């Protein structure tokens, strides 16, 4: 019996945001064709408790989810970068809506991973995601540097994994 191995490819994934809260009249989701990301770490905070001369390691927190960093290519009209910038400006609108709760600007987001045949093999769903940092864009004309890119750091409550 032979087993065919279809390895997951590190370059077949996309980040999908639903309609962003600041985009009235826009009927399309935002898809980032990310070229680099590391799935966020998860873990507990641990401590050592002493009891009757014994020391025991224990967990003293809920599951903690680290920030998520994404590197993505900018499209030819800067549409994806501009939409992310506008979302961040909407979250912190001190011009005419100061004091608005930022949680109303959070969206549920997903990371979809595909196999080498472009079939979805995994989906990670992030709950209540918000951008906290949109990285700079380097405008440069050097040999071999033709594509513009940026990075995005996001926070969220938790994620779930689905197949």
Summarize the structure.
By secondary structure, the chain is mostly beta strands.
Keywords:
about 160 residues; mainly beta; Pnp Oxidase, Chain A; eight-stranded antiparallel beta sheet; two-stranded antiparallel sheet; 1 helix; 12 strands
- Overall CATH class: Mainly Beta
- Count all strands and give the number: 12
Order of helices and strands: EEEEEEEEHEEEE
Question: N- to C-terminal separation?
Answer: 26 Å
CATH names the topology as: Pnp Oxidase, Chain A
CATH architecture: Roll
Strand content: 35-45%
Global Rg: 20 Å
What overall form do the CA principal axes indicate?
globular
Quote the average pLDDT. 84
Helix share, percent: under 10%
Give the CATH superfamily: Hcp1-like
Structural class based on helices, strands and sheet pairing: mainly beta
Query: What are the low-pLDDT stretches, counting only 5+ consecutive residues below 50?
Result: none
The helix count comes to 1
Counted up, domains total: 1
How is the main sheet built? 8 strands, antiparallel
How would you characterize this protein structure?
- The chain is mainly beta and 163 residues long.
- The chain is built from one helix and twelve strands, in the order E-E-E-E-E-E-E-E-H-E-E-E-E.
- Strands 1, 2, 3, 8, 9, 10, 11 and 12 form an eight-stranded antiparallel beta sheet that branches.
- A hairpin with a 2-residue loop joins strand 5 and strand 6 (54-59).
């Amino acid at each position: 019996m032979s087993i065919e191995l279809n390895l997951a490819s590190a370059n077949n994934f996309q980040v999908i945001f639903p309609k962003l809260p600041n985009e009235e009249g826009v009927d399309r989701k935002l898809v980032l064709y990310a070229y680099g990301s590391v799935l966020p770490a998860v873990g507990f905070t641990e401590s050592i408790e002493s009891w009757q001369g014994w020391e025991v390691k224990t967990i003293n927190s809920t599951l903690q989810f680290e920030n998520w960093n994404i590197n993505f290519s900018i499209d030819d009209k800067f549409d994806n970068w501009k939409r992310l910038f506008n979302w961040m400006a909407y979250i912190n609108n001190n011009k005419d809506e100061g004091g608005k709760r930022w949680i109303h600007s959070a969206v549920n987001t997903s990371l979809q991973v595909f196999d080498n045949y472009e079939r979805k093999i995994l989906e990670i769903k992030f709950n209540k995601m918000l951008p906290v940092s949109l990285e700079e864009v380097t405008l440069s004309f050097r040999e071999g540097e033709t594509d513009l890119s940026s990075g995005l750091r996001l926070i969220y409550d938790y994620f779930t994994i689905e197949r």
